[in-house]
Amino acid sequence: MSTAALNPTDIQAFTAEDFSPPDAFVNFCSNGGQPLDSIIGGKRVPGSMNAAIDVINPGTKEVLARVAEMGYDEVNLAVECGYQAYHRGWKNTSVEERAALILKLVELFERDKDVFLACEILNGGKVSELAEGDMGVVRGSAEYFVGIARKALFGDSEVTLVGKSMNAYTHVEPWGVVAGIIPWNYPVVLTAWFMMPALMAGNCIIIKPSEETPLSALYLAKLAEEAGFPAGVINVLPGRGELTGKFISEHPGIRYISFTGSPGVGQAILQAADKHGTRVKREMGGNGSAIVCADADPELVARMIGRNVNQHYGQTCSTIHRVFAERSVFDDFLQASEVFFKELVIGNQAERGTQLGPVINSRQPQRIMEGIAFAKAKGADAILEGGHTLVPGHDGYYLKPTLLRSPAGSNCNPSEVFHAFVNVQPVDSVEQALQFANNTLYGLGSSVWTKDLELGQRIAKQFRDGTGQVNCHNTVADGIPYAGQGISGGPGGGVSCADTLRDYLQTKAIYISEYPG
Q: I need a surface site. Which of 211, 257, 337, 346 has the fewest CB within 10 A?
């Protein structure tokens, strides 16, 4: 449906349906009263640290499961098991053999989709409409990278004459053992974006899920065994970033790391990995902007931007936190935005009608409140104050949305806030808006909203972001790279594109000369 055909009131925030966990999820989490172990070399490994992490429902603070935390010994064991599987034959499997296993895993994922929905809704805090959308990413990513791998060059290239009696060719092969450090906001999606290209390239993998949301990765490892993956090809090590993640980044046997998270942690991983030459690709959040042009319908666009601002309650990496609206539409846009955010139904994420559920943990509210205080100290006026709120019957981490108005050009929210938090500024022109939008160290995704598609594309190309969007936001598609600039990411091919598969391959140059005798 084109935006011209939409009635503004048709545009609503992502919304929950009632959800109850299936027995398979409950039984998996209870685990006979014992903490869930890591999966290393096809075996359940309880870990040597004798420590367990409570995995909670952020909407109720209920402990869903306890998960054993992995230390250096388990990281080292996972690397050893990964290389054993790699050299035993995984590196020499054909593309079709790898594809068959991955597609079988996808079938099992879809069979047990309700378990993964429970992981995303009850543990991750998502509303069902958004969680259901995440489920489709797994098959889409698998089928895309199977197709890319079928066209890719593996092994030896054609021989080229490079000098008198000297030939050369390239040899393409997997790195060996690679690791994915996955954040808590989109665990199913980001695990798929890591594992599908890494496995199709022929690597063995270590998945380090967030300590907040480790359940889906652990259950996926269980399904990988059922699908027939050789032991050691897929290893899952839960634990905190400052321990398990640190040990992964410092291990010289891990040849490539894919990280999604905060800039500070990403820089620390890069520095640790660089000591032994491990390649690192990073996606480190954003401080997304939107430009609203004078020709835009302010009510329509306010609701479309509002839906994107509130996607997973603003806990999405390229969430719009800064809006720059031309003065002729500014007042109407701000008023319509206020209406949209006031309409949001705050509640438990598993109850029908909820649109703004809990943030992930006890630390996030403090971060959000600091962002509000900083903006107000810099001159922002609170249209909607935000802050803590109560949801009857549920002891969770609930906050109200925040809508701010600030003077043109003021830098009232220089950091990623990660909530339904948006700061709106008036501008005199789209050129001025672009200048303000690019005044940030981040660079993941921004958008421009206009009926003039030529103008929109011209502006989108000038964003200091990896993704520029016209009349849309939070947009990803297989075959189109999703990556950041500035402190938001790099290097590497981003995700969901042909270059992503190449990230998980190394190319060697081979020269052959006649024996000099």
A: 346
How far are the Cα atoms of 160, 215, 412, 449 from residue 471, in angstroms, in the given order?
A: 48, 35, 25, 5
DSSP lists the bridge partners of residue 446 as: 468
* Contact call for residues 113 and 22 (beta carbons, < 8 A): no
Q: Is 39 left (phi over 0), alpha (psi -120 to 50) or beta?
A: beta
Ramachandran class of 317: left when φ > 0, alpha when ψ lies in -120 to 50, beta otherwise: alpha
Cβ 320 vs Cβ 449: under 8 Å: no
> Which of the residues 204, 317, 412, 497 is marked catalytic?
317
| Assessment of whether the complete model's pTM goes beyond 0.70 | yes
Per the DSSP assignment, residues forming a β-bridge with 65 are 55
Task: Please give the chain's pLDDT, 517 residues, in tens.
Answer: 344 568 898 999 999 999 999 999 999 999 999 999 999 999 999 989 999 999 999 999 999 999 999 999 999 999 999 999 999 999 999 999 999 999 999 999 999 999 999 999 999 999 999 999 999 999 999 999 999 999 999 999 999 999 989 999 999 999 999 999 999 999 999 999 999 999 999 999 999 999 999 999 999 999 999 999 999 999 999 999 999 999 999 999 999 999 999 999 999 999 999 999 999 999 999 999 999 999 999 999 999 999 999 999 999 999 999 999 999 999 999 999 999 999 999 999 999 999 999 999 999 999 999 999 999 999 999 999 999 999 999 999 999 999 999 999 998 888 899 999 999 999 999 999 999 999 999 999 999 999 999 999 999 999 999 999 999 999 999 999 999 999 998 888 789 999 999 999 999 999 999 998 7
Is 283 an annotated catalytic residue? Answer: yes
Distance in Å from the first CA to the final CA of the chain: 74
**Contact assessment for residue 123 and residue 186, using Cβ atoms and an 8 Å cutoff:** no
The two tokens of residue 302 are 């306010």
Q: How far is CA 111 from CA 31, 105, 136, in A?
A: 21, 10, 13
Q: How far apart are CA 149 and CA 388, in angstroms?
A: 48
Give the C-alpha separation, 329 to 56, whole Å.
Answer: 43
Q: Catalytic one among 74, 120, 283, 416?
A: 283
CA distance 241 to 135: 25
Contacts of 41 (CB under 8 A, 6+ apart): 77, 78, 80, 81, 84, 85, 231, 232, 235
Distance in angstroms (rounded) separating the CA atoms of residues 434 and 52:
48
In whole angstroms, what is the distance from residue 404 CA to residue 407 CA?
10
Mapped onto helix, strand or coil, the DSSP state of residue 48 is coil
**514 belongs to the catalytic site:** no
Residue 295's CB: how many other CB atoms inside 10 A? Answer: 13
Say how far apart CA 220 and CA 103 lie, in whole Å. Answer: 13
Tokens of 178: 């690679």
Q: Report yes or no: 234 and 39 within 8 Å, Cβ to Cβ.
A: yes
Query: Taking the CA atoms of the chain, what radius of gyration do you get in angstroms?
Result: 24
| Residue whose tokens read 């922002």 | 380
